[in-house]
Structures are given as structure tokens and as C-alpha cells.
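sry for the spam today, last one i promise. C-alpha cells for design, 438 residues
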């Protein structure tokens, strides 16, 4: 039995504004187009034209630099951390990321956080190196979880439930799984209520095994870096999308034969029972990987030789990242709608750091538009990408007005209402907590 006694709260974070690069722009574009075409042909729920970097880009197509209503994606994500109870933050990214980060901090301040920057290593653009860069600056203790997350989650601002989750104390790795049924409980009766469209390749059973949950891989990881083999995490993370985690797990297990022996009983149990249980609930269901959460947790704990746990949440912001052009449109449409209703106060209505984001846009972006190549004519830059990736339309007209057809979809209003309510609840909770302290 593995005994773990970590600190109960997470105070340190590594946020990655770094991403791998493909050898050529043609290779990256071909991959993006072919993936979207396969999804269309298969009738998938979420179609995604991926935003990918390439070695020969004249302008670095780094998704974290994309503008949402005139503000870089990375500023939304960094604002989420500044607005949290975190104490120490390491930002990993490019020189352009540092330029924007420094400008952002100059305008909005640090909110009492200790913020450090680590320049990405262009020769090792992988998760292991990113974590090691952050770990070297944070120097976490042996009994301390660190929050690791990519910086493409602009509206993931309800972090306290992750930072203070009671089970942080007992586990060295926590996977916050994205469950379709938990986030959008009424999607079958009211499809429009599912305002974030994603493809869910994985399945698990609810705790009482009465319901089959559709899952998508996690986007953030509370992790004890001193107790986890980072090479294993990299293999699992890099292969987690599109159902490839099975292959990653097998390859990892083969490299650890003694651990594989301990994992086998759980694997056999899975083979004998899981499909039967699925058939009782949803006999025609097709998926790429499925397993009981209890069996998965025990098996992976033995494989990693440490304690891990999974949990499912009900917050769409956890799954709403900016991997693709379609994702960027979701947020551009949302913020466009909010500012159409509330003018310059629109961002503050749907994002708790919104006033600071609007301030940054007003005070810093005019200079950054001259200094950062992507921003010199962002609408034309985006339009050219849409044309290259065969989207069939462009998001901006010749006067730089946002004209995407997605801006008028009903889901934009639903998304706005959800985030507006979320913000109001968080503000009420903060007010109540302050009154109790007073």
C-alpha cells in the first residue's frame, strides 16, 4: 500500500505557453486539413482545424498568442492564475511570450504572486523538458503537488476547487477528466445546451455503475514532480488524444516488466467485466478505450509506482481549450457578443479578470501591434490561415469586422449566459468569504 501525505493546498504552478513545431508549414497544414476531413467524413461532434506551429513560419503560429477580442489567449490564462490563491507561478514560452507577459504584468501587476519566466528550449519542445524548466525554478518540496496546465484555457478561472481539493493530500497525480454527461447533463434532450463541441473517445462507468460516461482527456494535472517518472507522464500525455492512450499504456508497461506483472490482474478484470457492463447500459456504443475508473486508478498507480486518482467535473471551461480555429471562433464569438451587450464592460461580465484584460487591451496592445508580427494585421493573418486550411469562409471582412457565421449561433447566447452566471456566483462567494473574515 502506498502511503502519501502531501500538503493539502497547491501553491505552485507551471503554465506552458510552449508547443511543438512541425518541420514545414506544408506538413503542419496537411495534418490539420486531413484531421478535419476525417472528422467530417465520420460525422464527428467536434470538427477541428488545428492551429500548429512550423519551423519555417515567418510568423510563429503559436496558439497562445492568438487574440480573443483583441487580447492574447495567454493573458486570459495568466489572469486566471493571478486571480487565484496560487503563490508561485512559472511561465514557460517563447521570447514573444515573455514580451507580452512582461507588458501584461506592467499593466495589471502581479496580484501578490511570485512570477518567473523560463525560455522554451526549441530543441526539446516536449512536456518533460517543459516540466523540468518549471521545476527548476519552483523547487517544490517532496510532499507538494504542483499544478501543471497548458496556457490555452482562457476561461478556466474557477481554479480553487482544484487547488484545494481534499484528495490532493493523498495522491501524487490527479487527473481532472472531462465528462460529457457531467458538463452537459441535458445534451440528449436539448442538444444546443452542449455549447462546447468535442469528440469523446473514452468511456467509464459512474461510481454506482448505473451510467456510462463519455470522457475526454484532462487538460490540467496536479502532480508531485518528485514522485512521478516524468518520462512516463510525457508518453501518456503526448499520446492521450484521439484514443491513442491505449498504445501509450502498453508501450510504457513493456518498458517496466516488473510493474507489468502487478498491472495484469487489473487488466484481466477489465477484459472480463467492462464490456458486459457497457452492454447493459448502451449496447451499441463504440469507443476507442474504456475502463472502470477504480480499475484504471489501481492499474496506473502500480504502473507509475505511486498513487493517482481521477475525478470528473461539471465545468465546461476545463475542456474548452484553443487547439483549433473552431475553438478560437467560440471565444471570439462569446466575447464579441458580451461586448455588443455591455460595451467595454462586456469582458468583466463573463470573466472575473475582465476589467484588467480590457485595460491591457487599451493601454498595451497599440504598442504590441507594432512589436509582435502576428498583431500587425491580425484579421488579415487569420483570414489567410482560414483560406489555406480550406475553411470555406473568413472570420473578418475588409474593414476588420468580425463576420463569422458562428457569431450568430444560438450556442453563443447559451455560452454567454453560462459564464455570466458563473462569474456572478464566484463574486458572491468571494464577497461572502470576505465578510466572514471581517
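last one done:
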Amino acid at each position: 500500500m502506498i502511503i502519501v501525505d502531501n500538503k493539502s493546498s497547491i501553491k505552485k504552478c507551471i503554465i506552458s505557453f510552449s508547443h511543438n513545431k512541425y518541420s514545414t508549414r506544408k506538413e503542419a497544414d496537411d495534418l490539420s486539413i486531413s484531421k478535419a476531413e476525417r472528422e467530417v467524413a465520420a460525422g464527428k461532434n467536434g470538427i477541428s482545424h488545428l492551429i500548429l506551429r512550423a519551423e519555417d513560419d515567418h510568423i510563429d503560429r503559436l496558439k497562445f498568442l492568438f487574440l480573443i477580442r483583441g487580447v492574447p489567449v495567454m493573458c486570459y490564462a495568466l489572469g486566471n492564475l493571478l486571480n487565484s490563491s496560487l503563490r508561485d507561478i512559472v511561465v514557460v514560452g517563447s521570447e514573444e511570450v515573455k514580451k507580452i507577459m512582461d507588458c501584461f504584468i506592467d499593466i495589471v501587476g502581479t496580484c501578490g504572486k511570485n512570477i518567473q519566466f523560463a525560455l522554451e528550449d526549441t530543441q526539446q519542445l516536449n512536456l518533460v523538458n517543459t516540466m523540468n524548466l518549471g521545476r527548476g525554478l519552483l523547487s517544490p518540496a517532496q510532499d507538494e503537488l504542483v499544478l501543471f496546465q497548458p496556457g490555452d484555457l482562457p476561461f478556466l478561472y474557477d481554479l480553487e476547487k482544484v487547488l484545494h481539493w481534499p484528495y490532493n493530500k493523498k495522491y501524487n497525480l490527479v487527473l481532472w477528466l472531462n465528462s460529457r454527461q457531467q458538463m452537459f447533463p441535458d445534451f440528449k434532450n436539448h442538444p444546443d445546451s452542449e455549447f462546447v463541441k468535442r469528440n469523446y473517445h473514452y468511456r467509464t462507468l459512474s461510481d454506482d455503475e448505473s451510467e456510462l460516461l463519455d470522457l475526454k482527456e484532462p487538460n490540467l494535472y496536479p502532480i508531485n514532480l518528485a514522485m512521478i517518472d516524468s518520462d512516463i507522464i510525457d508518453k501518456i500525455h503526448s499520446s492521450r488524444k484521439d484514443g491513442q492512450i491505449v498504445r501509450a499504456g502498453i508501450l510504457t508497461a513493456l518498458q517496466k516488466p516488473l510493474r507489468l506483472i502487478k498491472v495484469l490482474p487489473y487488466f484481466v478484470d477489465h477484459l472480463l467485466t467492462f464490456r458486459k457492463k457497457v452492454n447493459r447500459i448502451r449496447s451499441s456504443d463504440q469507443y476507442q478505450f474504456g475502463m472502470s475508473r477504480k480499475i484504471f486508478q489501481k492499474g496506473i498507480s502500480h504502473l507509475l509506482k505511486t498513487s493517482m486518482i481521477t475525478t470528473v467535473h461539471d465545468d465546461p471551461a476545463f475542456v474548452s481549450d484553443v487547439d483549433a480555429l473552431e475553438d478560437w471562433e467560440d471565444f471570439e464569438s462569446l466575447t464579441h457578443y458580451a461586448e455588443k451587450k455591455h460595451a467595454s464592460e462586456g469582458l468583466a461580465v463573463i470573466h472575473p479578470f475582465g476589467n484588467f484584460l480590457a485595460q491591457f487591451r487599451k493601454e498595451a496592445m497599440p504598442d504590441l501591434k507594432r512589436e509582435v508580427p502576428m498583431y500587425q494585421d491580425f484579421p488579415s493573418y487569420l483570414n489567410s490561415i482560414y483560406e489555406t486550411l480550406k475553411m470555406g469562409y473568413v472570420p473578418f471582412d475588409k474593414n476588420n469586422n468580425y463576420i463569422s457565421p458562428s457569431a450568430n449561433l444560438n450556442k453563443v447566447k447559451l455560452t454567454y449566459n453560462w459564464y455570466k452566471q458563473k462569474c456572478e456566483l464566484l463574486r458572491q462567494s468571494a464577497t461572502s468569504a470576505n465578510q466572514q473574515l471581517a
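The domain at 12-318 is CATH 3.90.550.10 (Spore Coat Polysaccharide Biosynthesis Protein SpsA; Chain A). ok im logging off now
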